[in-house]
Amino acid sequence: MSLLSDLVNLNLSDSTEKIIAEYIWIGGSGMDIRSKARTLSGPVSDPAKLPKWNYDGSSTGQAPGEDSEVILYPQAIFRDPFRRGNNILVICDTYTPAGEPIPTNKRCAAAKIFSHPDVVAEIPWYGLEQEYTLLQKDVKWPLGWPLGGYPGPQGPYYCGIGVDKAFGRDIVDAHYKACLYAGINISGINGEVMPGQWEFQVGPSVGISSGDELWAARYILERITEVAGVVLSFDPKPIQGDWNGAGAHTNYSTKSMRNEGGYEIIKKAIEKLGLRHKEHIAAYGEGNERRLTGRHETADINTFKWGVANRGASIRVGRDTEKEGKGYFEDRRPASNMDPYVVTSMIAETTIQWKP
C-alpha cells in the first residue's frame, strides 16, 4: 500500500508529458497570496505561451458578486520545488474581462515605468532584504518564545546559532534551497535581531523581475510554513516594546551609479528621494509608523536623513561605495509588508524620470 507521501512525490514524467502549473496572484489585501493549479499538455518555459485563466474575485475582495470574474495574465515562470519535475509556479497579475488592470494590480503600473526608455537605459538593479517573523500556530507568539513570556533581551540572536538563539532554522534553510531550485535569485539568509525573526535577500535583479522574484519567494516561504505548522508574519512591528521591527531594505543602483563618477549621481538621487519623502512613506507598507520610530536601527518616519554606514538613517550608503566613488545605496524605509512592485518602480521613477 502506498503512503500519502509516496503519492505526493510521484514523478509524473514516468507516465505522462502533462505538467501542473500553479497560478499565483495577490489578493485583495495586497499581502494575501492566492493560488490554484491546472494541468497543461506539456512543459512550458515562456509565460507568453501559457493560457490566461480566471478566478472568483468576489471571494478575494477584488470584485463584486454580480460581476466576479477576474482574469489572470501569466507573467513569470519558476520551477516548482514542491511538485518538482517539469511542474511550474506561475506569477500572474490581474485584470478585468475588458483587459483593464484591477486596482490591486500593482505590477502593471510598475511594468510601464520599467519599460520607459530612460529607465531601460539605466538598467536598475535591486537587492531586496525581506525580513519576516515566524509565529507559533495556536498562540501567534514568536517561535521559540516562552508562552505568555519573553526571551532574554536582544543581542545574542542576530546571526546567532544554538538552540536558545536560533528558532526555525529548518524552515529557513528549506526555503533557501527551494528558492534556488525554483530559479529565484536568492542571495542569502540570516537570523535577525529579534528572536524568531529572519531575513532572506533577493537580487541583484533587474527591474520588474525583482518584484516577480520576491513574490515567488514569499509564496514558497508561506507554503513551507504551512507544511511546518508555523504562521508566517510580515507585520512591520510584530512585538511592541524594545524589540526590532521587520523591514524590507531596498538596495538600488543604476548604470550611471555603477560607473565612474557614480557617487555624485547617487547623491543627486538621494536628494530627489528626500524631496518626495512623504509620498514614498505613504507607499512603503501598512503599519510602518509602528516600526519607523527613530529607534531599533530606523530613522523617524517624519524625518529624512542619509549617511554613510548609518543604520539609523532613511538612506544608507556603504563604505565601499564612498571609497570607490560608485556603487549603490540602501533605502531603509520600506516595511516588511511592502509591495515590491510599488517600491522598486517608485524608486526608479523618482530617481530617473522625475524632474523636481
Automatic annotation (TrEMBL):
E.C. number: 6.3.1.2
Keyword vocabulary terms for this entry: ATP-binding, Cytoplasm, Ligase, Nucleotide-binding
GS catalytic domain sequence ranges: 106-356
InterPro entries: Gln_synt_N (IPR008147), Gln_synt_N_sf (IPR036651), Gln_synth/guanido_kin_cat_dom (IPR014746), Gln_synth_cat_dom (IPR008146), Gln_synth_gly_rich_site (IPR027303), Gln_synth_N_conserv_site (IPR027302), Glutamine_Synthetase (IPR050292)
Catalytic activity: L-glutamate + NH4(+) + ATP = L-glutamine + ADP + phosphate + H(+)
Top-level taxon: Eukaryota
Alphabetical list of PROSITE patterns matching this protein: GLNA_1, GLNA_ATP, GS_BETA_GRASP, GS_CATALYTIC
GS beta-grasp domain residues: 19-99
One Pfam family in the UniProt entry: Gln-synt_N
Subcellular location: Cytoplasm
SMART domains associated with the record: Gln-synt_C (SM01230)
Self-association state and partner proteins as the record states: Homooctamer.
UniProt record similarity statement: Belongs to the glutamine synthetase family.
Protein name per its UniProtKB record: Glutamine synthetase
